[in-house]
Structures are given as C-alpha cells and as structure tokens.
Specification:
The protein has 245 residues and is of the alpha+beta class. 38% of the residues lie in helices and 16% in strands. The strands form two sheets. Strands 1, 2, 5, 6, 7, 8 and 9 form a seven-stranded mixed β-sheet that branches. Strand 3 and strand 4 form a beta hairpin. The longest helix is centred in the first third of the chain and has 39 residues. The relative contact order is 0.19.
Length: 245
C-alpha cells in the first residue's frame, strides 16, 4: 500500500499542534482557577488576621448586654462629654472615623502606666481617619490635666496642694507638654459617691482602664479590659485592620 504523501507547510506558516493547545489550555485554566482562589483567599485572610490580632490583644465583649458579654460588632452607645473649655462633644460627632475610646481616671495607677504607650501609639498613627479619646472618670479638670502631665512628663514638679486651680494646672501642662497630646481628653464625672464616670458606668464598666475600638459606622469592633501595650505590633495590626477597611 502506498503511504499518503506528507505535505510540508509553506515557509513561514504557523503550525498549531493540537496537543500543545490542549496542554496550554489546561495550564491557562489552572491559572484562572488559582487567581480566583487567591482573590477569594485575600479578604478571608485579612479577616482572620484582624480577628487574630484583636483577640491577641485580649479582646472581650463589653458588659452592655444585661450582664452578659455582647456579640461584636455592635452599635456603640452614644455619649456626650465636655472638654476643659466646657464644649459639648458626642461620640456621634466622630462617625466616619475609627475611634479608640480609652476609659481611665487620674486616680488610676494602672492608667498612668498605660498612658505613655497610648500617647506614642496615637502619635504614630495620627491621621484624619483615626481618633483616640481619653474619657476621664474624674470630678474636676485639674486632676485630669495634672495626671496627664505626671504620666507623660514624670520629671515635672507638681503642686502639693490637694486642690489646684485649673488655670495653674493648665500652665503646668503647657510648660511640661508644649506640643500638647495626640489624643482628645473629655471629662466623665461620676454620679453620687462612686468613682466611675457616669458614661463609663452606663457601658457596664466598674474598673478602669478599659478601651473600645469603634469603626466608621459607629460599631464596637473590639473591646479591651485592663491596660494594653498599644505600641506592640499586634495592637497596631488590630487597629490598622479596622482603619484600612
């Protein structure tokens, strides 16, 4: 039997091998599947990283739900406080920004040790998208102002008097901290004979410091009992994960 004559492609012609096409198509399909899987994994990995970071910071549920830990995220209760000029400010005023509310007090020794780290973190992460609020469970501004000086400028000599006029306290503050502080300070006076501020008490807080991380929609995303190392990488990861959303 005579074999069929083999035809030679014209010079310059492109020859496509079906086997190569099949293999190439398979490789391309695998590439598409892998890309889709990667795009699916990225947001899930980010969510896991955020959760792990905030849990690593020892996140708990705020005591706002009838004595039980609340499920997060949850809407943060609004509150109204005052600055040292008597200006009224509410938490709602900061909606659209990520807010860390730090409940503290001038009489709280643990708060004093936490304040330098809170100050450094607020300074390092300062932006239009992020606000740190220090809500003081105190009855007067002089104690609050001098407590900040004592925590952040410990070499400053403070008055021995039990009561210091606010003007004098502000003068000491201006000299000790001429650039101010990178966080906002508001007063939360206690009601009755207690020592926990009325706002803090309404959040179920019975000891300070405690902190709540609130997202742009006004929802509590993480809650931290007791002091935290706000300069640690895990703290920065937790905060940035919410800021960068």
């Amino acid at each position: 039997m005579t074999e069929p004559a083999k035809t030679t492609p014209p010079r310059g012609a492109i020859v496509v091998d079906p086997t190569v096409m099949l293999v190439g198509g398979g490789v391309a399909l695998i590439g598409v599947v892998m890309a889709a899987f990667f795009l699916w994994m990225v947001p899930n990995a980010a969510a896991r990283e955020r959760k792990a970071a905030c849990v690593g910071l020892r996140s708990t549920g705020p005591a706002l739900c009838n004595g039980q830990a609340c499920d997060l995220p949850m809407q943060a209760p609004d509150f109204t406080a005052y600055d040292h000029n008597g200006k009224q400010v509410s938490l709602h005023d900061f909606q659209g920004k990520v807010v860390l509310v730090n409940f503290w007090a001038s009489w709280c020794g643990v708060c004093k040790t936490e304040k330098p780290q809170l100050n450094k973190m607020a300074e390092d992460m300062a932006s239009d998208d992020f606000v740190v609020i220090a809500l003081a469970s105190d009855r007067n501004w002089s104690d609050v102002v001098l407590a900040i000086v004592d925590a952040l400028a410990p070499n400053t000599k403070l008055p021995d008097a039990a009561e210091v006029p606010l003007k004098d306290a502000l003068d000491i503050y201006a000299k000790a901290l001429p650039n101010g502080v990178p966080f906002k300070v508001f007063l939360d006076p206690p009601e009755g004979t207690g020592n926990i501020g009325a706002i803090a008490a309404s959040w179920g807080i019975n000891a300070v410091p405690e902190s709540a991380l609130i997202d742009r929609k006004g929802r509590i995303r993480a809650y931290f009992a007791n002091k935290r190392d706000w300069e640690s990488p895990v703290a920065q990861t937790c905060l940035r994960s919410v800021i960068d959303e």
